[in-house]
Amino acid sequence: MAFVKDPCGIVCVLITYMTVLHADYVVTHWIILQTMPNSLWAPFHVVAFNTIVFLLAMAHLKAVLLDPGTVPLPQIRIDFSDLHSEKNYGHEREEWTMCTRCETYRPPRAHHCRICKRCIRRMDHHCPWINNCVGERNQKYFLQFLLYVCALALYSIFLIVISWVYPCEDCHTDVSQAQTRMMHSVLLLLESVLFGLFVIAIMVDQMHAILYDETAVEAVQQKGPYRSHRPKMALLAEVCGRGHPMLWMLPCTSLNRKHHDVPLLSHDV
Q: Which of 134, 193, 223, 248 would be 240's cystine partner, CB 3.0–4.6 Å?
């Protein structure tokens, strides 16, 4: 577990949970309980909506707290005089590079994050909304978080529209309550549309990075796909896990530990 002490990231994490809790409050209290008091759909929507909230929070916490793939620091300081030596310890052949900030060799596709102040394996980018880097070990949970936010936004929009198109005729509420419900509904609708479009854009970018095997850092560096001939499903399974695809969207399932627990430093330094 890790937690980055970045003020911007901490504020973004708090905004994320405040927004999700506000959506849960408005949908449960002002839309479902106020417009569907005598309907069997009310308990169904309460359970379904809060299940998505639970899965969202679980995926987000894992993306925030899980180590994204930090390259361990060497126990002794590296002598940089061997950088241009003939031997070079075979790192050039295996595309290993050297980080002068961490003072260590780093494996292919690892990059240094100036916010985390460490090198991260298969680093895509540093996301303030999870206050962490999106890397080899937590990209799956970041993708799940985006999917559940999108689902929550669409579900909120659906329930708001239903409450407007099919108003409750048996609900006897005063004008002030009706106005308050309308104010909360409009605010949540705008919030859901804005966050939904924002999250969809990020999710499409993440899927492109996974399926074409090119992280955001590599795209900026114009390196091209890392393994252009690898099957798309194999690339997706590399991120989501080796289990059944039906389990890929469950944040309670873990990645293939045998694959991710390979020692990062297998060379003498």
A: 248
Structure tokens at 267: 């060379």
Q: How far apart are CA 17 and CA 23, in angstroms?
A: 10
Catalytic one of 127, 133, 150, 240: 127
In whole angstroms, what separates CA 167 from the centre of its chain? 36
What is the tens place of the pLDDT at every residue in 105-139?
Answer: 888 889 999 999 899 999 999 999 999 999 999 99
What's the CA gap between 12 and 18, in Å, rounded?
Answer: 10
| Cα distance between residue 145 and residue 166, in whole Å | 31
CA distance 50 to 43: 11
User: What is the arithmetic mean of pLDDT over 88-116?
Assistant: 76
Check: CB of residue 131 under 8 Å from CB of residue 9.
yes
* 127 classed as catalytic: yes
What are the DSSP calls for 28-74, one per residue?
IIIIIHHH-TT-THHHHHHHHHHHHHHHHHHHHHHHHHS---BPPPP
pLDDT-based confidence at residue 77 (cuts at 50, 70, 90): low
Phi then psi dihedrals of residue 112, to 5 deg? -90, 130
